[in-house]
Amino acid sequence: MVKAVQVKDFPNYYVTENGDVYSRNYGGTGRIKKLKPHKNHKGYLWINLGRQGRRFVHRMVAEAFIPNPENKPQINHKNGIRDDNRIENLEFVTGSENAIHAYRVLHRVNNLLGKRYNLGKYGKESIGYKIIQQIKDGKVIREFYGSYEAARAFNINPANIRSCCTGHRKTAAGFQWRHKK
Questions:
Q1: Which residues lie across from 139 on neighbouring strands?
Q2: What dihedral angle (degrees, nearest 10) is formed by the CA atoms of 145, 148, 149, 152?
Q3: By residue range, what is the domain housing residue 168?
Q4: Residue 109 lies in a domain
């Protein structure tokens, strides 16, 4: 038997342990109806609760069934599948715990915004660093551990060096730049 609990702050809506959401008074008719979730651009399911707003299904399930004594702000999908909103797959976490889980357990290098999970490591020890080569007249003059180190040496914006490495710009500080292969 699947247990259904009233959604926090929404008295006419109920959520089950499996992530199904029901309206107790669908369209003001008094009928009970299972609501169809929508998927956002990141893969998370959400439900439109009428004039009251949209809510993520995973948040409704977690708030209804999972205790959160440490008041952690985020909800993690343990198996990494964002539309799997079963109670067994959800847990409350901090932002740091969520990032570490994505990197160590799910082996994700980039997050949704394209930023790298550095996990407190910078420079050579960062998982995303690339050696940058400074080139003059077709010859490699010097190598740097990333665009920030090179930019500090010449007092220029590191974005200019990265633009050279990606081919969007020819030179920065009078030199050509590229990633070491």
A1: 136
A2: 170
A3: 130-179
A4: no
